[in-house]
Task: structure prediction
Amino acid sequence: MHKFSEIQFKSPTEIKQYQETLLTEELEYLNRHSVFYQRLFKEENINISRIKTLEDLQKIPVTTKTDLQMHNSDFICVDKTEIIDYVTTSGTLGDPVTFVLTSGDLDRLSYNEYLSFTTAGCTNRDIMQLMTTLDRRFMAGLAYYMGARELGAGVVRVGNGIPELQWDTIRRIHPTFCMVVPSFLIKLIEYAEEHDVNYNASSIRKAICIGEALRNPDFSLNTLGQRIHEKWHIPILQSTYASTEMQSSFTECEACCGGHLQPELIIVEFLDDNNQVVSEGEAGEVTITTLGVRGMPLLRFKTGDICHHYTESCSCGRNTIRLSSVLGRKGQMIKYKGTTLYPPALYDILDNIPGVKNYIVEVYTNELGTDDILIRVGSDIQTDTFAKQIKDLFRSKVRVAPSIQFASPEYIAEKQMPQMSRKTIKFVDLR
Result:
């Protein structure tokens, strides 16, 4: 793989033709090595030599998380001796799935993050503070580390949590950007304010954020993004979106107008509930076909993430498809009193209420067989008046008001980070 991808700056037609050439190679590889896809092609009577264009992908059925859970080992395309790294998905929507990577897959992952960092405007003069874990079977932390190394940037591996250690590291090493879950930046700000740390004078010039939405579909900062930006005037808050299954990422450039596709690593479609392609103005489920993955490649895999997409050229000169922040997860859609909601819409309201320190949104099936929402709010104010205030705010923003139950912020913090978890849990689905 060459050191800097020119394909993202070519015309949309050239990008499409380039991807179609790679798709042909990918289908041949799957037909030779993947037990799952060999079986699928046979059962569905698919002649892969007839799949020539990106539109032809519609002739192939989608792959789902259930397929991965039920036939996990059938997706592995290499001998055990070729497997170097084992990771698992986070299990947000069910049992975690094991993924295997070959040495070549690790190189590809490294190259992907190199492209991701260059898209975000990072160079070998930067020092990255890694505020995500490298362990716990987590792919992303390893990818960021390897990508920064490929870029020639410095790396300081602090891991997640421990605000005191994060600030001590910033003071000692002067990193220029951090990889971080955005809500943790709020914790860093709170710690800094309590301990007289002048965070706006720190060396951090950029935060590349994962795991939580920062923007609305029109690219304006959402509540969480605004809360960070109002306090900590980091010039650029950028998002990167990825998943273990896709082994690649969509990262915002400095224009902050959505995450850019890396055309040599992944094909992306946006599908409705009937697996039909949605038009540009509609939200669709991100559906990916990996390119160049050798351990566990995937074809038309529905990620469960709902996004908008944009095809017009970006001011940075790239002509690649861009993705909005994730609107929600397909499996986490809530039908509440006639209104369709995704958890991020609820988080956006809760993040904007002074007095709400932390929270967990629980969804369960009530005795009528419909969805009900209980929000456990961590707060030092635990009055009926405050509960009414919260409900009124929900009514004004999303037309419906969930049940509110107060708890201590410490209790909620404990529930948000169970021992086995790699991510802060804000949503619990009991349906």
